[in-house]
Amino acid sequence: MPPAWQYDRLRFEDMVYINLLPIREIKRRANAVRQLTLFAFVLAAVLIAVGVVGVYQKSIASQLQKNIAELNKEKQHYNQVLEQIKKLEEDKKEIENRIAVIKALKKSSALTVRVLDEVASLTPTKRVWITSLNQSGSSLQLNGMALDNQTVAGYMESLKSSNYISDVNLVASSQSAYAGRNLKSFSLSCAITVPDTAEPVTATATPQQ
């Protein structure tokens, strides 16, 4: 057997070792609790951050949806304005077309009056008699009767001298009896021209004799 003092020493060491076991266990548990607490804190922080980000993104998405709705509303308004502008442009174009037609008709009417005046002033009433006059656009056809071929030729030269009549051509010519007289029946084709400085018709010229 060991001496008594050695036995007491061994017994004391065993008691110290036994007493240290609960302290180590407590420290281990404390470390575990501290780690769990840290993990829980980190997890909570992450969840809070995710929640904040989610709320922020939801707020942004809501604002974007609101902006989109406002833009769509403005788009509808502008579409209505564009439709009105388009309608006004169509109306303007239609009015301009009508004005152009009216101007063309007025110009054509004034030109027709001037051509008739020219024909009347250039026709020798005692030697040439116009039986019909037809105008189609810029074409003019004269049908009539004259005393002879020389009268027809002279009449054609008179028409050529007009500023409103050109390209005078004899289409047909034949001998015809009228009121007991042998007359020359003729048909002329002409082109109507507009001089650069056309004057408005103010009075009907006196026909040639």
How does this structure look, described?
The chain is α+β, with helices and mostly antiparallel strands and 209 residues long. The chain has one domain (1-209): General secretion pathway protein M, EpsM (Gyrase A, domain 2), CATH 3.30.1360. The protein is built from two helices and four strands, in the order αββαββ. The chain has helices at 4-122, 149-160, and strands spanning 128-136, 139-146, 165-178, 181-192. A hairpin with a 2-residue loop joins strand 1 (128-136) and strand 2. The longest helix has 119 residues, at 4-122. The N and C termini lie far apart (181 Å). The model is unreliable at 198-207 (pLDDT under 50).
Helical segment count: 2
Strand content: 15-25%
Q: Strand arrangement, largest sheet? A: 1-2-4-3
Task: Supply Rg.
Answer: 58 Å
Task: Give a quick summary of the entry.
The chain is of the alpha+beta class.
Quickly list its features.
single chain; about 210 residues; alpha+beta; Gyrase A, domain 2; 4 strands; disordered C terminus
Topology of this protein?
Layout lengths: L3 H119 L5 E9 L2 E8 L2 H12 L4 E14 L2 E12 L17
